[in-house]
Amino acid sequence: MTRTTNLKGLSRRQLLSRGVAAGAGFVIGVNFVSGADAAWATEMNALKPDTMATLIQMARDIYPHDKVADEFYAAAVKGYDVPDAVDDTEAGIEMLNGVARGKGHGSYIDIGWERDRVDVLRAIEDSAFFQKVRGGLVTGLYNQKAVWPIFGYEGESYSKGGYINRGFDDISWIG
Asked: Is 160 exposed, middle or buried (0-12, 13-18, 19+ CB in 10 A)?
């Protein structure tokens, strides 16, 4: 279950020095979103922190991987934190939250069960906003070299002689 803790008025430095109560999914501050364990944080330049936290949760729900940390999802959606994308992104998140409210929730990020969040996403999956976020995640998430080992991908092989001599027939992971 994802819970959000709002610590408006605290700087990132203050948050990290104080720590955060266990059980929160994200901590939202003045210009940042952080993991509840304060192991990662991302600062916002243009988006509202609530919007960024919602984008991170949305990214996790679109491409769920239990072994991939939230910091990688945050990096994948960081590209929406630019002045040119703010209006469309904020409007898309408001649409998402409107659907969540229509289903009896306060906002998308307040929905505790993944299956209920997925139902909200399905309601907007034909929208341009959803398609843009989903499409951007393909490269934004999976092009991060730090996540490749989680999936067992070693990267390109051309510079190392190709796949034929580097485990092309190694299918032990099917097992």
From this structure: exposed
- Domain range holding 40? 4-174
pTM for the model: 0.75
- Residues 92-126 as b/e (b if ≥16 CB within 10 A, e otherwise) read bbebbbebbeeeebebbbbbeeeeebeebbebbee
Query: And the tokens for 135?
Result: 């499409």
**Closest of 174, 147, 1 to residue 63, by C-alpha:** 147
Mean pLDDT of 143-167: 83
Q: How many domains does the chain have?
A: 1
Q: Report the distance separating Cα 158 and Cα 73, nearest Å.
A: 28
Distances (CA, A) of 139 to 99, 133, 168: 27, 11, 24
- What are 11-44's pLDDT values in tens digits? 555 544 444 433 347 777 666 676 766 566 778 8
